[in-house]
Amino acid sequence: MLRFFYCILYVALAGLGLACGNDKTLFSRVPVSESGIDFSNRIRENDTLNILDFEYIYNGGGVGIADMNGDSLPDVLFSGNQADSRIYLNRGNMKFEDISKKAGISNVGRWCSGISLVDINADGRMDIYLTSTAKKAETQRANLLFVNQGNNAEGIPTFKEMAEEYGIADKGYSMNAAFFDYDNDGDLDVYILTNTLESNPNQYHEKLRDGSSPTTDRLYRCEWNDSLSHPVYTNVSKEAGIQIEGFGLGVNICDFNRDGFKDIYVTNDYLSDDLLYINNGNGTFTDKAASYFKHTSTTAMGNDIADINNDGLMDVIAVDMLPKDNTRKKQLMGPNSYQAYLNNDLFGFNHQYGRNTLQLNMGNKPGTNEPAFAEISLLANVAQTDWSWTPLLVDFDHDGWRDLIVTNGFPRDVTDRDFAQFRAQSSSVASKEYILGEIPEVKIPNFAFKNKGDLTFEDVSEKWGLNQASFTNGAAYADLDLDGDLDIVSNNINDSAFVYRNNLSESHPEKANYLRIGFKGSRKNVQGLGASVGLYYGKGLVQVYEHSPYRGYLSTVEPIAHFGLGEHTQIDSAVVVWPNGKKQTLKNLKANQTVYVSEVSATQINTPVQSNPRYWFNELNDSLNIKWTHQEPEYIDFNGQKLLPHKLSQYPPAVSAGDINGDGLDDFFVGGSRQNKGRFFVQNPNGTFNISDLLPGVEGPDKTSEDMGTLLFDADADGDLDLYIASGANELRSNDAGYHDRLYINDGKGKYQLAEGAIPSISVSKSCVRAADYDHDGDLDLYVAGRVEPDHYPKPVSSFILRNDTSPNQAPKFTNVTPQIAPALTNLGLACDALWTDYDNDGWVDLLIAGEWMPLTLLKNTNGKFTVLHSALDTQTGFWGSLAGGDFDGDGDTDYIAGNLGLNALTKASDTYPISIMAGDFNQDGMYDAIPFMYFPDAENKLIRVPFHGREDVIKQFIQTRARFQTYKDFAKATYDNLLTEEERKKALKLDVNYCPSVYVENTGNGTFKTKPLPTLAQLSPINGMIVEDFDKDGHLDVLLVANDFGNETSTGRYDASNGLMLQGNGKGDFTPLTQATTGFYVPGNAKGLAQMASPDGRRMVIATQNRGPLKVFRQATAPMKWLPLQANDAYALIQTNNGKTHRQELYYGASFLSQSVRKLPLTGREKSVEIVDFRGKKRKAY
Q1: Which residues contact residue 596 at a Cβ distance below 8 angstroms, ignoring those fewer than 6 apart?
Q2: What sections of 275-372 are H helices per DSSP?
Q3: What's phi and psi for 1004, nearest 5 deg?
Q4: Rounded to 5°, angle at Cα 963 from 961 and 968
Q5: Looking at the chain, which terminus has fewer C-beta neighbours within 10 angstroms, N or C?
Q6: Cβ(1177)–Cβ(843) under 8 Å?
Q7: β-strands 1130-1137, 111-118 pairing
Q8: Is the pTM for the entire model greater than 0.90?
Q9: How far is the C-alpha of 465 from the C-alpha of 472, rounded, in Å?
Q10: Is the distance from CB of 848 to CB of 817 less than 8 angstroms?
Q11: pLDDT digits (tens, 9 = 90+) for 579-618
């Protein structure tokens, strides 16, 4: 690398591809003078045609690349708006000739948007389909089909416009088109994307599903006419079910559910939902976007579909408009709207957020061929690429992982908030010309992201040489110079098109291995569109591809499958499946070649793999007829503290399991909500449940308390399970009696009465409650976690230890002894979860606490008194929310799993760049003004600490902001140091978070700990309920978990990427994530509590709760197990296994967020003996 330092002109020349030696950037821009490609999509505004009158004026055009004249060189075509569309013939060595006039190509007065290249008449020559829009006259919106007539004497292809003859001169404001065989009859049908502006396109309304909207797309069926020797198309949109409104900007074809029929994915602008038309196989389609994707992009533009993690499953990216730098963010950010969030549900629209979305295919939902997706753009670092148009997923650097290119830019940014205010104030007096002159532009470089192979991408835009600012719309890739790597061509507004040469093959040939596969179909689909390829090589490596060239935005990429192979030079096998159901297998292929496969050579019958996995768990809701759904009244926390990072009112319900009526069968309780009581699920001998209200009191407005933590335990030592309910959430004001907890005493038969005066009246909003005998007096004491002071987030609140002072045969009595034995709990913080755990095995149970804006906090118990034990855990402050314990590494002490925010969030944190919050009653209204801060890059890509929210939201919370920062441009300069005055900052509560991953906490002895992030799939959402057991009976502890938080602030949106997860342990503190496709454990909603219990025949059952969602009940698919009963004061078990090893297992009264499993010890069959030890150290042999 020393050569780099001697290349004085490297930085200046890299963009031109003139950097020295092997230090070239990956891409070099080829000058117009060298390439001959001088196309520019120039837009000329006038009084009636401008951004104010026609919002789509700068939506641009596309790029098409294919061999148009049969010389094996890919040629380049552009669709133009006011400029004529053009075709450039590839003359080799990156030199091109404009042959448009000779070829007979022009717009014929149209405003052309998309360009789709296809051999429409199966004559072996590529044809051109241009979609037309914008013009008011219907005749000028008829799409154009230029049919290739063959080469003239000069070798130049000539074309004849024949859209009318072919039946696809569609006049409906067409944006783009994709050709594919939807009915598997061997010819090519076409889907036409439609988009025309209506007034108020973002206004909520009843979604139009009957085809009446002028923005409804069209599907044309190919009907071959032998006498004409070409197809004639028929509009079959209505009978096929293509009837849903949408402002279409992107279309892609993919067999999502792998049933052999091609599906259609459409990204739509404005309020209209993206559409995922699943092919029913009978000529009709059903939109299943809402069941496949939990949320999508708001103003979605282009899209692409490819496998980003090489698991053989297709993932989806759609691009939007979220800027990366703080200046652009703050100049565009409008106010958050929780009402819009509610309207999505009210009017039947999916949840949408203003950023790119990357949908990771997690495999099929249990028992179906429907894939479940997790949206991971924030984790992957690809969410923020500003005003984006084209995403392209393909392996540009040949390391075996598909990279991402995103184009962007917009000549007149009408979304700028300052301009919007100026326009509103001045439109009646200022001339249109003057107003147009005040609109800022978005001219920035396109983005390049290198796939790092771990579900994350690195921004390599400048490193790869994409540093030229532009207004780029459509783009496509191809191997233009036949050197084996992929070059890029883009269509720019008011600038010459970009041609980027890929320097990989010349610069790094040892790492540039590849394989390209071309397709020769048969019958009337000679391109073989719809074929798929599976590539198998190395040690279990796989890549897949589905053959459709219509990708990105308005464009057609080179119709060849392209695979980067890194250092691999040999392919074990390539399996090609054709649309006719036949397949062929090519073995022992050498790398660095283009292989052409022919459909006529495919003789094997492809039998789709039947998905009949033996799941670890089976859902029982239907068989047990359990159809209970959690309900709670809507409460908008953001109406009080406007800048809360998340709601505090949407965390229940908790779940607690135990035998409440003494019949030997496990039952469970699910907590209630404000106005709704909790319910007991009482198990019957046949395994069914009766849902019962066994608590006194009424439901409705008089029940003001919200049930947070719940605990079944024997409060009065009479041998049955009483119930403690911790009251919490955020709906009531501070010190309201609705925050008083409740203790219900069991009569021994499962009937409960409120124990008046048994517990202190503590008016703090709480989270969890946990029991243990901390003082060795033989009864169960309580820890109750303080969660928040309403209207004063994030002010630290107190947690409490309630000592059990119940006398024999007397009513229960608990005393708050926190000041005497655990003063550190006073104003400790925002506690979310806790474990009574003996971390040092000294026989005295200690207390580990998780909370927001605080580190994992361990209080050591010394003879019944608690002090904070300082350790390495102190250095990691986070949004800790859940704790579970187990001896994961088999060394005899307890390790922990700690759930945190995770990494799939806009809020990222480190020691150097923490997430911060400043809070205080700055405007003297009795409520905390809590202002979150984040490090965002400035225009020079330097990280600065700035308000997380936009100007309007900060003004709502803190009115002084309006005068201090009078414009949005001013507010873009607001920072941690100048948003508040020096005096306000001095008085403010200041808290930081520097660590967001969920972790495995290894107990390394002597009060020391090491943390290690859990696998990436466990970082997709905040972890909530967990169960730690040896589920696979291999002698190592595993973790079953649920996650998600739908109450997050609305600009970033819901944390909803989890579907439930199994972490399979290896006994060394490492874990392998297993999704629902393997385990059958599928909990996709706002999942909260998780508990295990036994069925009547001894099988493991798992109960999962979901906020405002259905309760889920699962049974593990194993033989019945033996469950050892426990006594009330049992603390832990010493389990000796058949291999002679002994491990320690703590026996919790509740573990992980809002979760309490039954207090029984399930045996796996590996146990030789079990010794139980109680809180006072008394031992007994139990097995």
Answers
A1: 517, 518, 519, 520
A2: 289-292, 326-332, 338-347
A3: -100, 10
A4: 70
A5: N
A6: yes
A7: unpaired
A8: yes
A9: 16
A10: no
A11: 999 999 999 999 999 999 999 999 999 987 666 679 999 9
